[in-house]
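Exercise 7b. Backbone tokens:
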């Protein structure tokens, strides 16, 4: 029996010496000291021993058990420390490592077009200004020669918030604001890119869309200035070979008024499905600022003349990038937007 105990002690000590992690230490504890462990088994056999042997063997087993327990406890502490140190070592942050790739968004096609238009007009000495999207009836219509009840109001289906406030249907509203804000009544040369709203929604119309307005007021401004400016504008956006056609039209705030068509950039004017076989695409509204508009906004029509124009930026973006459905511009689909992350467009 004594030999057996000594053998167990010897084996246990040796195994403890080789034990290198907490899991095997626990296995070892169970193997020797657990309920069904080797030492525990010996204690259970005490009943078979003689009276004289019992206390001798009993104290020997207890001694070995205490010894093993002590060693296991201190070994456990040691291994725990080691494990924490190893963890800390492996989790150290290496600040010199390159970071994981950041997914950058891309510029929205409309913003690309807005920036292009702004760059062009700023290079010609224009200011870029903005106005409120929640606009008053006064600025959206009345100060633009469209009094209440004017039939031309029917051309624009509007979202009224109250009878006085509406979501602006046209950036033209900012024409009146710019004239009224200019206290010295000095010359004006501005463009106004911005959001506009109308009650319509299909493949070529969205309830929210973008326009850019242009307004120039000075002495001796003529139709030649308007024509030259729009030619530079359209050639810059759609290509040097673009031709312009001015068709007489009607807008309440300009007189005379024109709708401006550009030669179809897809077929070069021969006729195709994009231009509905006409060779032309209608793109802008324009004209010479109506004397009434100058007058109600504080400019003397005998001293000043001016021209104005307005165009839809969404349509311009659609033509430029070959986009067939306007709603794609507002769907926020990353697969669509990612295509504009290229340097070559
Ligand atoms: N505001 C007009 C529209 O939304 C477009 C327009 C036409 C603007 C003639 C102008 C202009 O400045 O002179 O339909």
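Sequence design result:
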């Amino acid at each position: 029996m004594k030999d057996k105990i000594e053998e167990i002690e010897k084996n246990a000590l040796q195994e403890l010496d080789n034990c290198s992690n907490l899991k095997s230490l626990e296995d070892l504890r169970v193997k020797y000291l657990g309920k069904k462990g080797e030492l525990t088994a010996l204690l259970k056999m005490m009943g078979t021993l003689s009276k004289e042997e019992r206390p001798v063997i009993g104290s020997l087993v207890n001694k070995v058990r205490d010894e093993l327990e002590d060693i296991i406890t201190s070994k456990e502490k040691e291994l725990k420390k080691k494990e924490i140190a190893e963890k800390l070592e492996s989790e150290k942050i290496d600040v010199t490592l390159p970071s994981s790739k950041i997914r950058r968004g891309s510029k929205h096609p409309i913003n690309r077009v807005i920036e292009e238009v702004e760059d062009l007009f700023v290079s010609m000495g224009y200011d870029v200004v903005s106005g409120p999207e929640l606009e008053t009836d006064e600025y959206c219509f009345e100060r633009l020669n469209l009094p209440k009840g004017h039939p031309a109001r029917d051309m624009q289906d509007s979202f009224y918030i109250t009878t006085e406030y509406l979501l602006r249907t046209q950036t033209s509203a900012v024409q009146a604001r710019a004239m009224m804000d200019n206290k010295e009544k000095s010359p004006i040369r501005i463009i106004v890119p911005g959001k506009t709203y109308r009650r319509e929604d299909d493949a070529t119309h969205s309830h929210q869309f973008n326009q850019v307005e242009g307004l120039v007021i000075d002495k001796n401004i003529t139709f030649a200035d308007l024509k030259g400016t729009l030619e530079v504008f359209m050639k810059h956006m759609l290509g040097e070979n673009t031709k312009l056609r001015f068709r007489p039209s009607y807008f309440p705030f300009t007189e005379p008024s024109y709708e401006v068509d550009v030669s179809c950039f897809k077929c070069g004017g021969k006729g195709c499905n994009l231009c509905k076989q006409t060779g032309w695409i209608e793109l802008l509204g324009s004209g010479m600022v109506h004397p009434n508009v100058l007058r109600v906004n504080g400019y003397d029509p005998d001293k000043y003349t001016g021209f104005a124009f307005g165009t839809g930026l969404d349509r311009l973006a659609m033509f430029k990038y070959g986009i067939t459905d306007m709603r794609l511009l507002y769907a926020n689909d990353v697969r669509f937007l990612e295509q504009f992350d290229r340097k070559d467009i």
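Instructor comment: The longest helix spans residues 53-90. The chain is about 40% helix and 20% strand.
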